[in-house]
Amino acid sequence: MDQIKIGRFISSCRKAKGLTQMQLAEKLSVTDRAVSKWETGKSMPDSSIMLPLCEELGITVNDLLCGEVVSMDNYKEKAEQSMIEMVRGKEQADKQLLMFEWVIAIISVLFLLGFCFIAKFLEMENWLRAVLIITGFVVGLTGLMFAMKIEQSAGYYECRKCRHRYIPTFSSVLWAPHMGRTRYMKCLHCNKHSWQKKKVSASADND
Description:
It contains 8 helices and 5 strands. The model has no long low-confidence stretch (mean pLDDT 87). A 5-stranded antiparallel sheet has the order 2-1-5-4-3. The chain folds into 3 domains: 3-70, lambda repressor-like DNA-binding domains (434 Repressor (Amino-terminal Domain), Orthogonal Bundle); 90-152; 155-206, no CATH class. 62% of the residues lie in helices and 9% in strands. The protein is α+β, with helices and mostly antiparallel strands. A hairpin with a 6-residue loop joins strand 4 (182-186) and strand 5. The longest helix has 47 residues, at 75-121.
């Protein structure tokens, strides 16, 4: 998805409607800075605001994602291309999130061990020692839970029995026995338990 092209398209459509960035921002209940970022390709409009934006500019969502007005002759082709690019974008974002998960997990463990180390080896009042240990556990466990939430929602798990890929519930991931990102869970499709690996793509064809 070419954000620069989309940004220029938003800008040209806005000007064709005789709107300033401020006027468009007021209609959409956003800041003119947000509109400026869209038009310079620094960011994309949130999915929740795409329909109102398209209505104000007199274009379709497909036009917006393509960065041009799509004719009926190649509408289907452009729509399919936009969908493919969106899927690729999600897969790339999921890869980055799963890498970020490891960073959060490592930092959380270091916080936990660091606070416990300080509490054990430095001279201090018992109440302060208890506060440090509790703080270490709270910070560490909060970080680990956040990392697990990322693992649960980014990408998919593949059932070893039926090869179905799905996003499990957080509780399923939380309580499942695991080895790294491979977890022993019940498939929502075939209802069988198996060791399921984390996959970024929803389709095996894209691995």
